[in-house]
Write a structure and sequence with these properties.
single chain; 287 residues; alpha+beta; Jelly Rolls; 3-stranded antiparallel β-sheet; disordered C terminus; binds 2-oxoglutaric acid
Amino acid sequence: METVDASDIKAQWLRDGFVIVPGLVSKEELALGRAALPDMFPTAEEFHNDVDPQRNARFRDEFGGITDFPFANTDMSLLSVHEKLIDLAEDLLGTNSLRVYSIEVWAKYTGAANYDQRLHRDYLNHTVLVPSRTHPAQQVEMFLYLVDIPVDMGPPSYVPWQLTADLPVLPNWYPASDGVTDPDSPPGWVSYVGRPDLYQAEVSAAGSAGTVVAYRLETLHRGTAMTTPGGSLHDPCQLPHRDLGLDWQAFLACPLTDTAVVGLRRVRQSTPAPALRIPPAWTPLLE
Ligand SMILES: O=C(O)CCC(=O)C(=O)O
């Protein structure tokens, strides 16, 4: 398996605005969390044979397969705050004072929905402020692959951000071809001018189970199409982290809606634990 030297991880992050770390979490470390998947989601066979149409229904929307933290299964909850992920976030952000503000597991099934996204950045629904490229990252998003994600199974892809330095803050979505509009987006959010060059430059994050991809809010990226017939993708765990002081950063950009803010150090100190302790005592909004 391809590996990334520890010293290269930070260098790639700083240079490209993302880093792909194959095998960061071992198959053994994934095992207990993965064992929860058949309870959390239909298997590929169950979904494609429509064994339980009611259970399947939500997965027919692009984002319908997302299950939010905390998970009913404690092993999956603990896996999603595995210390290797915390160590990586601390290293990339240069702080040991982190909060995680959103964790989810996302199940996708070939043909259930169109997962082929336009290139975009995530800042619009993670912060009420526009992130500055001239400041070091204050936030990191992560995907932990629970299963193998080859190129035909919809891995995310990323454009190294030295290629996107000229892009203004808006538009935020860049289709490959000219003339695309989206009635669901405010005017100016989707580029009317196609940028096929960005799609040619994108780097696929295809990888095996245990791979972690970390990226900045400002990095252009997208989910890609699932084309393997009968496939399922019980994955990835999405794990945005932020520095403890950054209370304006939260998924959907509003800390008031944030029901899963977890003090990572507390979780670590409490292991082995029967359950995660939520919320941390220092979060007045949730006390
Ligand atoms: O599905 C993926 O791999 C990426 C999803 C994504 O970028 C998004 O929904 O904003």
